[in-house]
Specification:
Elements (H helix, E strand, L loop, with lengths): L5 H16 L2 H15 L4 H9 L3 H13 L24 H13 L4 H15 L6 H14 L2 H14 L4 H20 L4 H21 L4 H10 L8 H13 L4 H13 L3 H12 L5 H14 L13 H8 L1
Helix pairs in contact: 2-3, 5-7, 6-7, 7-8, 7-9, 8-9, 9-10, 9-11, 10-11, 11-12, 12-13, 13-14, 13-16, 14-15
Organism: Caulobacter endophyticus
Protein name: Tetratricopeptide repeat-containing protein
InterPro entries: TPR-like_helical_dom_sf
């Protein structure tokens, strides 16, 4: 889709959605229409079959609908006055608050060394401040000395065991260490030990914030050495996808786990929003290919060796 077409695409999509949803009879046929399209029906031909309108008739109906839209006023009681509290940020935030946000968005490799040196220099101005030390730990974790990062984080967590951000950085570091150990061909026991350590921090995060979807996603990753995911692992990754339905990586990871469990219907359900994303790029195309391959597979059926879905289940 061309960039210039996006505005038209969304405007027309919303008009069609409004047109269907605002009429009880049309709304009642929507499930039938979507089911037929999911089964491979041509969208326009299926529309004509379900709604009795060809493309020209539909366009005319939409234009007429748009010209005669009626507003709806909803009267609601105002919400109760919120309690507003102000807290002062530490002094280190004056120098590092923007750098923290940059770290969360990833630093280009060409800029990493200079950026890390900058954070180290600024953090050295306040060697005892918790905030500056935590920012430095994040920078070391992403760009510098991971072992030093984890030493710093352990000290921070001794001071504040419930500090959510420090726990999140530590869990992410441990997961990265596990993935690096896999790439370095470490033994299964070594990798599992790192994953188990990561799971401890992820569990602490979950106790503080049960809806931290990255903690749930991370926990599912700690079980990646299981040949077949347990029911608990599947429940955890599904919950992560429920909280963050827009996160395509979580959905694809969940789909992979369901394929490993030979639960192909659930795998396709996870991938459907990814495949249907018009801006999803290669990942959307790949999800659509996997869904097409799994379409007629019965749950529990073995996948052909060398098939795309089998390779995805094994290697991701």
């Amino acid at each position: 889709m061309l960039m210039d077409d996006r505005g038209v695409y969304y405007a027309q999509s919303w008009l069609l959605t409004h047109y269907v949803w605002n009429d009880k009879a049309r709304r009642g046929q929507l499930s039938r229409y979507l089911a037929a399209v999911r089964e491979g029906g041509d969208p326009m031909a299926t529309w004509t079959k379900v709604y009795g309108q060809d493309s020209k008739t539909l366009e005319k109906a939409l234009l007429n609908y748009m010209d005669n839209l009626h507003g709806v006023e909803l009267k609601r009681e105002p919400p109760p006055a919120p309690e507003i509290a102000f807290s002062r940020l530490p002094e280190g935030a004056d120098d590092l608050i923007l750098e923290v946000q940059q770290l969360k968005r990833d630093i280009p490799p060409a800029e990493a060394a200079a950026f890390l040196a900058k954070v180290r220099k600024i953090a050295a101005k306040r060697p005892n401040e918790f905030y500056s030390r935590r920012v430095l730990a994040r920078a070391e974790c992403d760009l510098g000395d991971r072992k030093q990062c984890e030493v710093m984080l352990k000290a921070l967590l001794e001071e504040r065991p419930q500090d959510l951000e420090a726990l999140q950085i530590m869990a992410a570091s441990r997961l990265s260490s596990a993935r690096q150990a896999v790439r370095d061909k470490a033994s299964r026991d070594e990798v599992q030990a790192i994953y188990a350590d990561a799971a401890k921090y992820l569990g602490r995060i979950h106790k503080i914030d049960p809806n931290d979807y990255m903690a749930l996603f991370g926990y599912a990753q700690t079980k990646s050495l299981e040949p077949v995911p347990s029911e608990n692992t599947l429940n955890v990754i599904v919950r992560a996808a429920e909280i963050a339905p827009q996160a395509s990586l979580i959905r694809m990871t969940a789909a992979r786990m369901f394929i490993q469990a030979k639960a192909y219907a659930e795998a396709c359900e996870m991938m459907a929003p990814v495949a249907g994303n018009p801006h999803g790029g290669p990942r959307a195309k790949y999800a659509a290919q996997l869904m097409a391959e799994l379409k007629d597979k019965a749950d529990g059926e073995a996948l052909p060796v060398g098939s795309q879905a089998a390779i995805f289940a094994e290697k991701g």
